[in-house]
Amino acid sequence: MGNQKSKTAAAIEPTGSTTTSTATVSRRRASRMVQNFLLVWLDANIDESKKEFKNALAQLRQTVVTVMTFTDADECIQFIMEVNDEKVFLIISGSLGQHIVPKIDA
């Protein structure tokens, strides 16, 4: 554990079929829309070796191109403050939200 930060990029691959369904077109449009977004996940108890974490991360990767995980609130705040051209979605676990949101909002 400790002060961990990981950046994971995931691209959504096009389907191999020659026919295009409405769901496939919608998925492709959605993948283009979320490329300008970052998902930042702050949790003091993230354990990247746990199956639950890996499953959650895999599901998030289906929607968001870049997922950043942090266990240290100060590192997370610093990272968010340095983001310029992307919108950030923030997942905060536990009571960390009460401490981090006022610092980011200021």
Summarize the structure.
This protein has a domain at about 1-10 and about 35-95. By secondary structure, it is α/β, with parallel strands linked by helices. The protein is built from 4 helices and 4 strands, in the order E-H-E-H-E-H-E-H.
Can you summarize the main beta sheet? 4 strands, mixed
Mean pLDDT: 75
* Total beta strands: 4
Main sheet: strand order:
1-3-2-4
Distance between the termini: 29 Å
Low-pLDDT sequence parts: 1-20
| Radius of gyration over all CA atoms, rounded | 16 Å
Q: How would you describe the shape?
A: globular
Portion in strands: 15-25%
Structural class, please? alpha/beta
Helix content percent band: 40-55%
Describe this structure as you would to a colleague:
- It is a single chain.
- The protein is of the alpha/beta class.
- It has a domain at 1-10 and 36-96.
- Helices cover 41% and strands 21% of the residues.
- A 4-stranded mixed sheet has the order 1-3-2-4, sandwiched between helices.
- Helix 2 (51-61) links the parallel strand 2 (37-42) and strand 3 (66-70).
- The two termini are 29 Å apart.
- The relative contact order is 0.24.
- Mean pLDDT is 75; it is low at 1-20.
